[in-house]
Design brief:
Distance between the termini: 17 Å
Structural class: alpha+beta
Helix content: 25-40%
Number of strands: 8
Largest sheet: 5 strands, antiparallel
Strand order of the largest sheet: 1-2-3-4-5
Order of helices and strands: EEHHHEEEHEHEE
Keywords: Transferase
GO molecular function, one term: acyltransferase activity, transferring groups other than amino-acyl groups
InterPro entries: Acyl_CoA_acyltransferase, GNAT_dom, N-acetyltransferase
Protein name: GNAT family N-acetyltransferase
Organism: Thalassospira povalilytica
Length: about 180
């Protein structure tokens, strides 16, 4: 299911056909360094990850991490979406773009459209974002998206402190809840 389109991308729900892409992305050095090793080392593990980490959230929450696809090539280029964590009182926006597509503005293009979608379709009042303190590109992205630094927090209860950012619904946007 398509969530939204931007000039260069389509953001859609993940499915089992995305397993080779998930396997590739989750094993790129940047993913492992800044997000963590998810121990996804074969296609079946990638399909299971899609079911447990993405599809369950679509069914339970109506949103989740999605696959960003480049329109020109119809190739997946990243994972971008909202996640609801037990440690936060609102969803957070997450993004990871393949190394081959980094630095081309894709993450900003999709994330800014997704934030608008979160305010106008899902009816969010606030959205968080977080990253490791040494992830300069993600810090820059969160700030460019209009999120403001709140504090350092162990968001995942992993013993690892992250930089936590937040944005609130722009006052001019009306709330029209998704559910």
């Amino acid at each position: 299911m398509t969530i939204l389109e931007t000039p260069r991308t389509i953001l859609r729900e993940a499915n089992h056909d995305d397993a080779p892409f998930i396997l590739q992305l989750l094993n790129e050095p940047g993913w492992i360094r800044f997000i963590g090793d998810r121990n996804i080392h074969d296609l079946q593990a990638a399909r299971d990850y899609i079911d447990l980490r993405f599809r369950e959230n679509y069914e339970k929450l109506g949103f989740g991490m999605c696959v960003a696809v480049e329109k020109d090539t119809q190739s997946p280029i990243g994972l971008i979406g909202f996640v609801k964590r037990d440690t936060l009182d609102a969803p957070d926006i997450g993004y990871a773009v393949t190394e081959a597509h980094q630095g081309k503005g894709y993450a900003y293009e999709v994330c800014s459209a997704l934030l608008d979608h979160g305010w106008n379709v899902y009816g969010f009042d606030k959205v968080y974002g977080y990253c490791l303190p040494d992830n300069g590109p993600s810090i820059h992205m969160l700030e460019k998206l209009g999120l403001t630094f709140l504090r350092d927090q162990d968001v995942n209860l992993s013993g690892e402190m992250c930089r936590l950012y937040m944005a609130t619904r722009p006052s001019a946007q009306k709330k029209t809840p998704h559910r």
